Amino acid sequence: MSELKLAMPAISMIDSGPADAAPMSQRPTEVTDGAGGHSQVVIVGSGPAGLTAAIYAARAGLAPIVLGGSAPGGQLMITSEVENFPGFPEGIQGPELMARFRDQATRFGTTIVDADVQQVDLTERPFQLWAGGVRYTADALIVATGASALWLGIESETRLRGRGVSACATCDGFFFKGKRVAVVGGGDTALEEATFLTRFAPEVVLIHRRDQFRGSRIMQQRAIDHPGIDIRWNTEVAEVLGDESIEGLRLRDTQTGREWTEAFGGLFIAIGYRPNTEVFRDWLPTDAAGYLEVEGETGSVIEGVFIAGDVHDHHYRQAVTAAADGCKAAMDAERWLETHALTHAAPVAVPG
Ligand SMILES: Cc1cc2nc3c(=O)[nH]c(=O)nc-3n(C[C@H](O)[C@H](O)[C@H](O)COP(=O)(O)OP(=O)(O)OC[C@H]3O[C@@H](n4cnc5c(N)ncnc54)[C@H](O)[C@@H]3O)c2cc1C
Known about the structure:
Blueprint: E1 35-44, H1 48-59, E2 65-67, E3 81-82, E4 92-93, H2 94-107, E5 111-113, E6 117-121, E7 127-131, E8 134-143, E9 147-149, H3 155-159, E10 165-166, H4 169-172, E11 180-184, H5 188-197, E12 203-207, H6 217-225, E13 229-232, E14 235-241, E15 248-253, E16 259-263, E17 266-269, E18 273-275, E19 305-307, H7 319-339
Parallel strand pairs: 1-2, 1-8, 2-5, 8-19, 10-17, 11-12, 11-17, 12-13
Antiparallel strand pairs: 3-4, 6-7, 7-8, 9-18, 14-15, 15-16
Helix pairs in contact: 1-2, 1-7, 5-6
Flavin-adenine dinucleotide binds near residues 71, 116 and 276.
């Protein structure tokens, strides 16, 4: 394994599972003439949360439909080595891990459609969803649309993503042992990530474009007092330098416009996440940061609508916690369907 995460191209995964995954009688209606079909459980999102929910729902005989969105596989598709997902002691590439999730979901009869849900109507059951111009209906719905890391949006940052540029210190910090790293941001996340990275990096430079942080007072003081953290106020990243991997940054003083370069072995962008909740905002409450609010473990204010993964969880933000949430949401949905006598479970397809 290389020390730095290597950039992996997003792989396109559009399929409806193997033809022999489940008899047609227990599979959802085929997508024809603009009619997407009905399932007892429709899952929105195909990251670790959505696909784990699909594995559980499929194995419960519910023949779920996953509307997987335009980023099939979710956030792990933009990373390379994943070393903290249990069961892979040697590590596994993010896209390969998600391909395995997907295979496991389709193996038991999940239908996956890689289209974004553009509109929903949760007024009454069955719930209605439109994806790619096609209408789907569901007795129970699992929302697992995740969140998207915010990036600076400069070309060199995109090019070196996974080659020393990351948006997750918990996930990738370990790869930067002994390297001088930069963290961009001024909120709690940036302060936390900078402090966390001092475990691995001999010097962490915190780059903030203003002259004060937005984070909580205690986190600010911890970062300011930390001997391993050097703060560059009024500074922004003009360019990430390096061909195959990051070698340094061209920095700019936001007040004077003066530019200079510094050597770095890693760059962490910690300017926030955008929860993917747009289509549900008129139906489900969100917190101040836009994340969906959960009732109990996976429930919502609408009976029969369940929530899983990073779309509500901005505390743990890990594949394993999202997967666990997906499992819980599927089990809760299954029990809810049972209680409302909406299950028509067919035997689970067990491929020979
Ligand atoms: C750079 C990086 C590296 C990471 N490395 C690790 C790591 O090493 N280990 C680890 O445990 N975690 C890692 N993470 C965190 C991990 O990827 C997330 O915690 C996890 O993917 C969250 O899973 P999720 O299913 O909740 O959401 P996501 O993975 O965000 O998936 C969301 C899904 O919802 C879909 N979607 C969104 N909107 C719609 C819509 N309108 N209609 C239909 N579908 C929609 C998307 O297409 C996507 O399939 C990393 C994250 C990043 C950004």
